[in-house]
Amino acid sequence: MNVPLLEVEGLEVAYHVRSGTLPALHDLTFDVRPGEIVGVVGESGCGKSTLSSALLRLLPANGEITGGRVRFKGRELLALSAEEMRRLRGSELAMIFQDPLTSLNPTFTVGTQMLDVQLAHRRRGERGELRRRAAEMLGQVGIPDVAERLDDYPHQFSGGMRQRIMIGMALLLEPALLIADEPTSALDVTLEAQILELVRRLREEHGTAILFISHDLGVIAQICDRVVVMYAGRAVEEGDVISIFERPLHPYTQALLAAIPSHRRRGELLASIPGRVPALSALPAGCKFADRCPHVQDVCLAREPRYAPVDERRSRCTISDPASGYRADAQ
Amino acid sequence: MSAPAAGAPLVELRDLRTYFDASRGTLQHRLRGSRSPVRAVDGVDLSIGRGEIVGLVGESGSGKTTLGRTVLGLTQATSGQALFDGTDVTRAHRRVLRRLRRRVQMIFQDPHSSLSPRLRVSYLLTEPYRINDVPLSDRYSVPELLAMVELSPELATKYPHELSGGQARRIGIARALALGPEFLVADEPTSGLDVSVQAQILNLLTALQRDFGLTYLIITHNLNSVGYVADRIAVMYLGQIVEIGSTEQIFDAPAHPYTRALLAAISEPEPRRRRDSHRLLLPGEIPSPRNPPAGCRFHTRCPYAQARCREEAPAQEEIKPGHLASCHFWRQVRESADASAQAGA
Lengths: 331, 345
Hints:
The structure holds two protein chains of two kinds. By secondary structure, chain A is α/β, with parallel strands linked by helices.
């Protein structure tokens, strides 16, 4: 169980733009074990979505993986040919998005599309058999009256149902890893709760590992086993979900948690993080969070902290790094 | 349903209804034959006291945005009254309405679609003055407006696309404040914002309320943020308010099964308090407001529904002073929920 399914090591991604090169991801390292739900959390522009595209090798034309390694089931993903990669996507590595309409074709019925997914990956079987598999999967993700609805088009389903169909389609070939990019961000809390419940159940029943990308700390707390916090293209903290939420090491994680509103905090001033996320074109030299950090020291401005192991966790903060000699100040 | 508010209410809604009639729409709609109207707001009573912050929550399709627009006279009411400081907005003459508009304003949900991309911030901020022919002596200056929303005066020369999401929200708020309103309707003021920016906007809204003595109706599906800012919360389902009470009453002692379900669905940032499958998970989706279910509108999704719920619409009942709910069985619901909470603990 402890052999990682996905190993990302020192991943570097850059976007080439007219004015130069933007470092979108830098020194990104984490892994996902079989059956594990790992959350990636961070604010707009932290590189979460670049990460999901890079893992599937679906970066936009001006994006380039400039360094690092990505191993999936021990195979180096970055070395695969385009054809090998295409075969992997959808069958072993699947992805779901915030907007299901981006991955459902409006001109074909749901049944046809679910048949095509199987045929594209050369699943053998009579058409009737493949159709039955599709219906069975839709039933599992909670679509009522499946037999009749298989011949409906995507627009005939409600938003919540489309989300379920997309999840069903992604799981049709029983992928080992599902990458979910903000799958509940456009939904009402009630639907969100239903979809999270569904994701959790699918993990239990199929053992699918999930990389769950979200900006919503509440959703991350509800569903993940482990969490990676990203800031300015870097992982700044990683740990099990309880430690991240109860004893965050990195000042950025601490600030994010303090900013969550709740009726229990009524009348208090919410802690907000001063300033803005730095632009990728003008990243500061040292710690990327230094100019917004309440604990900033001279050393933070001078050099970028290493992604240091702290007990069973990691943190990219000089002050929480036991080897730096600053840890006492932080306590 | 109205709850006592301190002093004379600034806003009072009486049996307010807003229907959208499909048969009066496009030719295509007419050819399809007369369909029943969409009952977006279907009999709402609500009063909001001066200086109060009332949160209006519910799922998409519950009618909250339509209610907010109807209160401001932006959408025509079908029947009932929407009184602002004694004047009925739904029947007021256009001239009266126009004067009223200076006292009531809306903060729109998506600032980028409500700010014209071709106009500079300085122009956008002063637009309300030109529209309303406000004499120069009564206007705030652009730097003053920017300062109100804690933005630097340099932003005056920028275009909307040069603003961050949080800055655009602030410009939207400044525009709403330009005419010195007393009452603001804010539609999803923090949706789509990152958590740190959301905190800044919520802090700003509460500071403005304090400094200018504003009254807010905050429309949102985000229960965490509304619980943080609101004094009272109204819960809406299929065009009707099913429960209203103080924020403490709603969060600590909800009476309506729908309110309970909404609260149970909040993803709390506490991994030790995970929602487990035993907790009330609201099945299905909100039905069409064209043909709302008979009896209690919530009965099709309610885990406590009984025969009576399918036939008879519940009347509102007072649970505690200021706390009202429309459920035949709220006592039983509360008992059984408390019992299962204890069993789970």
